[in-house]
Write a structure and sequence with these properties.
Elements: E1 17-20, H1 34-57, H2 64-93, E2 97-99, H3 100-133, H4 138-141, H5 144-161, H6 164-171, E3 179-180, H7 187-191, H8 199-232, H9 237-266, H10 268-273, H11 275-300, H12 302-318
Parallel strand pairs: 1-3
Antiparallel strand pairs: 1-2
């Protein structure tokens, strides 16, 4: 049953919970969506956990490049876990109610993890730039302390800059509807229910996107432009092919990640007309990359693939 706040004309009334309605237009049979979503979530957890175990056990993978991959695996599991348990609870048990603090906490976690994923991709791009364009300096520049410092900076940057998103959303006054036509607490989706002006929320969302995603993407494009320029100057076709192959897995993930974010932003107005499109795209953006990232690396990176096979064989033999 839909819940609408009573006394909607009373500006002093404040709702105490939201209702995540799920997927617009599919309420009658949306539980069938758990068939693809649940395996995707389990795949994301399983493959990223396998990546972490493999990097931890295999000394050949104790390199900065794989440390960044391990951090990406942790971020991917956090991103998927931020939304998928609640999405599956809605689909399986019709558990639509979410308290305001829980909603704002989910909003913060989503922004934080997405920003961290963008930051990790930037760190990977810098790693590949130094490895290909300045190979003699690589052992002295890309070290374990560098990985630690880059990770700390990334965590602080994203955890601090995203705090205003839920704080500003919590300051809005929710006095009428509490039904969110979504299955997660997106910033604009939640604040659209507020009874007062939410301009500052939209402005900060835009500023945050440019500060985090825009700056990261700009640096990534610059890094790979310099890499491409350096590779094209190589006299050996074999050396150029080898250099590009080490970047291919990064590029596939980066292109997919940022393309999805751009599509979500560009199609925001279309999603108002076809809300199901926007909801599906948001959910898939939070679960497909975590499931896809480890498989792309396993397929494109020979050293990692061999170590994964070794760990899997040891696991089968021990069981």
């Amino acid at each position: 049953m839909f819940r609408v706040a009573r006394n909607s004309n009373n500006s002093s009334f404040q709702v105490s919970e939201f209702m995540l309605m799920g997927f617009p237009g599919l309420h009658e049979w949306q539980h069938w969506l758990s068939l693809p979503f649940c395996p995707l979530y389990l795949l994301a957890l399983g493959t990223n956990l396998l990546i972490l175990i493999t990097i931890n056990r295999e000394t050949a993978l104790n390199q900065p490049m794989y440390y960044f991959l391990a951090i990406l695996a942790v971020v991917d599991m956090g991103l998927a876990t931020t939304i998928m348990p609640k999405v599956l609870a809605i689909l399986w048990f019709n558990a639509k109610v979410i308290s305001l603090p829980e909603c704002f906490a989910q909003m913060y976690a989503m922004h934080c993890f997405v920003g961290m994923e963008s930051g990790i991709f930037l760190c990977m791009a810098i790693d590949r730039y130094v490895a290909i364009c300045q190979p003699l300096r690589y052992p002295s520049v890309i070290t374990e302390p560098f990985v630690v410092k880059a990770t700390i900076i990334m965590v602080l940057r994203n955890s601090l800059l995203t705090i205003p998103v839920p704080v500003l959303a919590a300051q809005r006054h929710y006095c009428s509807q509490n039904q969110i036509e979504h299955c997660l607490c997106s910033n604009l989706g939640v604040t659209s229910l507020s009874c007062d002006d939410r301009t500052i929320n939209s402005i900060y969302q835009l500023i945050l996107a440019w500060i985090l995603m825009g700056s990261d993407l700009g640096m990534i494009i610059l890094s790979y432009s310099l890499i491409l320029h350096s590779v094209l100057r190589l006299n050996s076709a074999e050396a150029a092919s080898k250099a590009l192959s080490t970047c291919s897995s990064h590029l596939i993930l980066i292109i997919f990640f940022y393309t999805t974010l751009v599509v979500i932003s560009v199609t925001h107005n279309v999603a108002k007309t076809i809300p199901l499109f926007g909801v599906l795209l948001n959910v898939l953006n939070n679960v497909i990359p975590p499931a896809l990232n480890p498989m792309v690396y396993a397929l494109k990176n020979k050293e990692l693939r061999q170590c994964l096979v070794k760990v899997l064989r040891l696991g089968i033999q021990s069981s």
